[in-house]
Each structure stands twice: as structure tokens, then as C-alpha cells.
Amino acid sequence: MLKPTALGMTTNLHNSEKRDEKMFIQTKPGDNATELEFFPAETVYENGPLDISQKDAASSSPLAQRLYEIDGVAAVTLKSESIIVSKTDARDWASLRTEIFGAIVAHFQSVETAVNENADDAPGEFDAEIIEQIKDLLATRIVPAVTQSGGDVSFHSYKNGKLYLKFQGPAFSMLTGIQNMLRHYIPEITAVLDYREALPKPGLKTPEGIAIRKLLEEKVNPSIAAHGGRITLVDLQKDRAYVRLDGGCQGCGMADVTLKQGVAVEIQNLVPSITEVLDVTDHADGTNPYYQPA
């Protein structure tokens, strides 16, 4: 339920505030008391996460520059759909948060981009060398093997040791092998992830989200692993659970039946407050060798 604040804004039980009819910003605590993450319900920076220092903000990011103009803002990180702001100990969030809301709203009402096109997160010399090695391994060793099974995999991004790839069809079921090969040749890689894992998923950290993820990992996924399938909880928002079907489940003609008569029932039995389980899989990119509709 929404309730008015002294500033004429509105806030709900999930720490959300509405600045105007088109901008609805949610917040959640960061990893420590000096961090707060802001979700403006708009795409922030698709290639994120990107850390922007105060020194570089003026030349690289109009959004970060606005935020650094606020007294007490110590660090800014732009993610795909959120902004992480760190503060100094001298300021408290009660007043600082309102100023940050104003800067974010002003940015999205302007015609400016979050990051200047000529100053986005181009990799440094060291990262560029690693990325070239990754692309070479993908082209010469991994893609040829994956395409034999009817799938495909391509490079998306690399940052701080984490490699994000785009998987299609059965390719996701080969993730372990792909990761082992890449890390064998490039030890700097600490993890290989689906590119969608970089998106913010605040609902996954709730007790309900943790319980559903445990259900999928311990009960559902083992039963469909024989078909190269996997089901992942993407996010949990109020009474809706969003799941993604990968591997053999992507593009499967029976995916809807499996979801509605199997997985959704299991999830709703575990968490009765969930009224809908929605499939966000891009089935058009998937192929399935086990079933094809007539």
C-alpha cells in the first residue's frame, strides 16, 4: 500500500518512491551500509556493470557526473537496469537518497545517455588480450563442438574475471565442459555465466526466492537433466515467479505443459502466495530434439 511522504512523493513497503507519473524508482540495500542500489524501471547501461570514478565521470558519464555533484556520493556503478551508489560516512541515507532520486529523474528526463559513446567500458589492454583469446577459443574449439549438437554459443562480455556468453538451444547443457576448457587455457576467467545473469534480480534474495531456487536445484532440475534441460528462477516480484527454460527445454513443444502442470504446481505448493509462474524463455532461439509439434 502506498503512503504519502512529507516531500509529496510516495513510498511503499519495498522502499520505492515515485517522482512523477513516469518514473518509479525502487531501492534495495547494497553489500554494506554505505551502498544503496537504485532501480529506475528503465534501462541504465546495457553493457554494465561499469564502475565510474569521480575523476572520469565528467568525460565518460553524464549520469555519474550528476550523482557526483551531490555532496556525500563516493562511488557510482552503472548496471543494466540499476545504479549502485556508495556514500561517505558523513551523510545519512535519509537526506542523501532524496537528492539521488532527483538526479536520476533529471537524467532520464534529459536527452543524455548514461555513458558517452566514445567513453563506454572499452576494455583495457590486459582485458582486450583476454577477450581475444576467448573469442579465438570459441571460434576454433567450442562453437564447432556445440553446433554438432544443434546449439550455438557466442561472446557477450567479460569483466573482472566473469565471462558472459549467449547460449542457444542445447548449448547451455554443455556449460560445465565449456567452462572447464576456457578456464584451462585462460586461468584469469573465474566464472562462465549466461549473459542474463548480469541483470539485477532482487527477488532471488527473499526467503521465498531462496526456497524456490532450492526446489528447482534439488527436485526439478535433476528430473529433467537427462533431456539436457534446466529451469532457472529469474526473479520473484510480488505474487509472480519468472522462470527461464534452458538446454533441451528451450524451444520444446511440451515446455508449456511441463511448466503449467509440473513446475508451476510445485512452486505454488511450496509458496502459496505465488499466483503466476511466467516463462521468460526466448523459445524462438531454441531447438529441441525430443519433441516437435505436428
Summarize the structure in words.
It is built from 7 helices and 14 strands. The protein is an alpha+beta fold. The protein has 3 domains: 3-119, Ribosomal Protein S8, Chain: A, domain 1 (2-Layer Sandwich), CATH 3.30.1370; 125-197, GMP Synthetase, Chain A, domain 3, CATH 3.30.300.130; 200-285, GMP Synthetase, Chain A, domain 3 (2-Layer Sandwich), CATH 3.30.300.130. The strands form 3 sheets. The protein has an 8-stranded antiparallel β-sheet. A 3-stranded mixed β-sheet has the order 9-10-11, with helices on one face. A hairpin with a 2-residue loop joins strand 12 and strand 13. Helix 1 (54-60) packs across helix 2 (62-68) and helix 6 crosses helix 7.
Indicate how many domains the architecture comprises. Answer: 3
- Evaluate the radius of gyration: 21 Å
Number of strands: 14
Shape: globular
The CATH homologous superfamily of the largest domain is named: Scaffold protein Nfu/NifU, N-terminal domain
Question: Looking at CATH, which topology of the largest domain would you report?
Answer: Ribosomal Protein S8, Chain: A, domain 1
Query: Helical proportion?
Result: 25-40%
SS-based class = alpha+beta
Assigned CATH class of the largest domain:
Alpha Beta
Low-confidence stretches: 1-21, 283-294
Secondary structure tally, helices: 7
Classify the beta-strand content into a percent band.
15-25%
Order of helices and strands: EEEEEEHHEEHHEEHEHEEHE
Q: How is the biggest beta sheet arranged? A: 8 strands, antiparallel
Q: Strand arrangement, largest sheet? A: 1-2-3-4-5-8-7-6
Please tell me the CATH architecture of the largest domain by its name: 2-Layer Sandwich
Distance, first to last CA: 48 Å
Query: What value does the average pLDDT take?
Result: 77
